Structures are given as C-alpha cells and as structure tokens.
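Something for you to look into today, if you have time. I want to see for myself how the chain folds. Leave the record below and I will have a look.
***
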Amino acid sequence: MPPAKHGLVWFDEPPPPPATEQLSRERVVAAAVALADESPSGEVTMRAIASQLGTRSPMALYRYVGSKDGLTDLMVDEVYGEVTVPPPGDWRTCLREMGLSAWAAVQRHPWFARLAFSRPPLGPNALRLYDSALAAVDELGLDAATRIGFVNTVLGQVFGSGLALLEELTTRHRTGLASDAELTEAARPYLERIRADGRYPHFSRWLGEPDPTAEVVTFEQQLEWQLDGLQRLAEERRRR
C-alpha cells in the first residue's frame, strides 16, 4: 500500500521495489539532490529527475519514493546525514561543531534550509542527529523542553541563515547582480537619496562610516553569540 499523499515517507513505509539498471530509491534521491544543487532556487521536478536518470516516465519514480512529499523527506534526510555531532563531552563544543557542520551542509545544499522547515525531522539521519545532540546536553541536567530548545536554537540559526543564503542566490540569479560590488553599485542611487532625505539619521550615519559592510558578521560569530546566551541560561538554571 503506498504512503498517504501528504504523509511522511517513514509512516507505514512499504519497501521500495527492487532496483533496476536505471532506478532505485538511492539513485532517485541522488539525482534529485544533484539537480536541486544546480538550481538557484533549489526546485526540482519529477520530469527533470526522470530525464537525468534516463527513464521515459516520471511516474516510475513514485514507486521508489511514494510521492513528491516522500521525495522531499528523503532528500532532507540525505543532507541530515552529512551533519556530524562529536561524541558527548563539553556540550558547548558539541553544539558548536554540530552548528558548523550543519552550516557547511547548507552551503553545499542551500535548498536544504527551506525543505528542512517544511517536513518534520523524523528520518533515520535526522533522528541520529537529534539523539546525538540531546546526548551532548544531558550533562546540563535541564528539563526536556529546554534541552530540545538548546538544540533547536543552534539548528534554527543554521536554517535561518540558510534561508537568507537561498534567497540571496535566487535574487542574484534573477537580477543578474552576481557580485557584492554589482549589487552595491545598483543600490547606490537609492541609498544616496535616503541619505539626502534625512529621515533615517542612524542608518545614514552607518552608511557614511568608512566601508560600513567591511566587517560583516559571520555565521560563526552569530553562532558564538547564540552559545553565549545558552551558556548563561544553563548557569542560571544550575543556580536555582
């Protein structure tokens, strides 16, 4: 019995049919991931995947993934499998390494950030990741909601930054403004009007400082700020 149209592929999942020379679940997912990586928006179609695999009928793919949502589940879990969490030790080090590993995965697959928000993380790779991350914060002795909150704070930073990256890549492709210099030049006349208008004095002062975008806050710095806040929270809870 095929999975429900909008259900997770993991729910009552029937085994996929035996692999053929052209098709298997692994080949379908690998082709979908590769095509999504090549697309500025990360969008893929079953027809494009079928063409990539050299099969005439996109419908043949559904035998291996159940539905388009099922394919999304499998693609997302495939990338979760690229994220590593060190063995339990210092919780902050573990969450930092998880965040950096997840950010590296998002940079390889920007679409992952969007799809990760669209489907619950219940595949085997996602469960392994969450289990490892929860093991890392066990030492803090926090309640269940706070423990998962620590993990999701870090992953939320990753996925939020990933969505910004995906939108930036999509916009650059649509507008043809491929570099920061091109984008700055295109915006220059508008920004000059804003400075001349005088209604936004603090923003205008920032624009007038030497190279205001030279010290862009990196993902790594944002992650450290997040971890600083989590550490203060953990210390407060311990003192209660």
